[in-house]
Amino acid sequence: MRKIILFIILLYFIPPFFQFNFDRKEHIKSFGISLPRVISGDVPYTLLTMHSILHDSDFELKNNLNNIYEKKYCDAGVNQRGKKIPTAYFNKTTKKYSFFPKSFKDPNIIIYHSHPPGLAVLASILLWPFSFTCPKLCLLEPASVILSILAMLLGLYFLYKTIFYYSKEKGTALKICIIFALATPLWHYSSAFQVESFITPILIASFYLFFIQNKNFIPGIFLAIGFSMRFPIAVIIFIFGVYRLIQKRYKELIPLSFPVIGVIILLLFYNKALYGNYFAVPQAYYFKSFGNPLNGIFGSLFSLNQGILIFSPILLYSFLGIKSSYKKFPKDAIFIIILILAHFLIYTVRGLDWEGGCYANRYFVPLIPFLAVFFYFWHSENKSKKLEYLFNILLIFSFLINALAAFFPPLLWNKPPWHPFSLLFSKFNKIFKMI
Fold first, then answer.
1. Which residues of 133-151 are buried (b: 16+ CB within 10 A; e: fewer)?
2. Which residue from 216, 319, 413, 414 lies 20 to 30 Å from 241 (Cα-Cα)?
3. Residue 197 confidence class, pLDDT cut points 50, 70, 90
4. 410 versus 146: which is more confidently predicted?
5. Cα(63)–Cα(72) distance, integer angstroms
6. Could you read off the pLDDT of 331-379 as tens digits, one per residue?
7. Residue 134 near residue 55 (C-beta atoms within 8 A)
8. Widest CA span of the chain, in angstroms?
9. Backbone φ and ψ of 19, nearest 5°
10. In whole angstroms, how far apart are CA 313 and each of 47, 180, 192, 316, 344?
11. In the predicted model, is pLDDT for residue 287 greater than 60?
12. Positive or negative CA dihedral for 241, 247, 250, 254?
């Protein structure tokens, strides 16, 4: 068992050390082995904020952006050196947040990361020793990727503990963990250093400690950290609190809510210091635009470019285990279903099938460990050889896609899962024509 666990850990740590550069036609331009680098998305802004916290003791990013473009520093990662990256800004005069400033020289413009500060602050605290290597060596970036991997491995540990609680079999729990570690987007996001890389372990750890171990204060700390990274986690916190109210364990609400209240107070002062308003929400536009939720639901699940079930079809089998889980553990099943639906609907209510550039649908990655719980119940009671045979086929497909996403992330960002294979086919087709 130890050798298998070590092998999984190595599979999580190896891909970030392989660096592939692609040209515009998505052909491999260069290959090398180096320290891990972040990819793209929101990560450069998180790194910028970390550099600002550790070197400038503030959250203002204007000088850090100049460091990237003029001094070729790695404040936003090695791949962003010398580039002008799109950014958002806050206008002190109009008190409004907007995007793409015409000039950084405007004294009324202040540039902050428009996302909640939780991840940047947490990473800065944990990785401050690496800040002394900047700007020449810059070990802060690879350290951030390693931290992301460790966080996801912690999530897999709590997933193992959760499955073992229901199965009472170490081998079964480990098998389920391996399947979901390598055949779902968990593998890709383990080294992505995105918020989902941390929200995923936070939610499954909170569930295990709160629901199974009946702890309150430590889950409260985890959920408070999650809220500082993603404000919609407030809905999950509310569900945890309501569950304790239903149990009539009123006193336990105090240790559960105390860390959350503390973080809320800190965020209020953070908003006041940066925006002059305690209740400023830079991403408030998210809550102002709504579309057809059915489009969001269908697209989030089945979009060819980012549908979570398209990139990991084995997740379909999780739905087959809901009935069985409800029969054996009705309270547990209902609680997990409510968590999944609440988290899912928060992000589909706008009627969009995705938000920003990413692999698969990153907002639903934190739900994968909970789907693994339902999958266990299907796996433990399945007697259909046809379903098992089909599962094995989908498992191979899911593993191949997610392995490619782990080693060659750019080829699958905002693209269908067969995109790498189409590139390979076109390459061989040219060779055959030449012959």
1. ebeeebbbbbbbbbbbbbb
2. 319
3. very high
4. 146
5. 12
6. 999 999 999 999 998 888 765 555 555 777 888 999 999 999 999 999 9
7. yes
8. 77
9. -110, 120
10. 33, 11, 21, 6, 17
11. no
12. negative
Placement of tokens 């990413």 in the chain: 358
Q: How far apart are CA 358 and CA 291, in angstroms?
A: 21
pLDDT tens-digit profile of 147-193?
Answer: 999 999 999 999 999 999 999 999 999 999 999 999 999 999 999 99
Phi, psi of 22 (to 5 degrees): -115, 150
| 316-342 pLDDT per residue, tens | 999 999 999 999 999 999 999 999 999
Which residue is listed with tokens 């809901």?
Answer: 322
**What pLDDT, on the 0 to 100 scale, is given for residue 389?**
96
C-alpha 420/C-alpha 410 separation (Å) is 10
Tokens of 408: 């060659």
- Whether the bond between 201 and the residue before it is cis, its omega within 30 degrees of 0, is no
To the nearest whole number, what is the mean pLDDT of the chain?
86
Give the Å distances, CA to CA, from 275 to 47, 176, 282.
21, 46, 9
- Render 112-153 in DSSP notation, one character per residue: --SS-SHHHHHHHHHHGGGGGGTTTT--HHHHHHHHHHHHHH
> Are residues 90 and 109 in contact, defined by beta-carbon separation less than 8 angstroms?
yes
Cβ-based neighbours of 333, under 8 Å, separated by 6 or more: 322, 325, 326, 374
Q: How far apart are CA 405 and CA 266, in angstroms?
A: 37
Q: What are phi and psi of 335, to 5 degrees?
A: -60, -45
Q: Which of 45, 16, 369, 354 is nearest to 185 (CA)?
A: 369
Residue pLDDT, tens place only, 212-271: 999 999 999 999 999 999 998 999 999 999 999 999 999 999 999 999 999 999 999 998
Q: Which residues are within 8 A (CB) of 410 and not within 5 positions of it... i.e. 6 or more apart?
A: 20, 22, 26, 39
Tokens found for residue 252: 């336990």
Judge contact between 395 and 181, C-beta under 8 A: no
- The tokens for 317 are 């089998």
Distance CA 226, CA 241 (A): 15
Percent of the chain with pLDDT over 90: 53
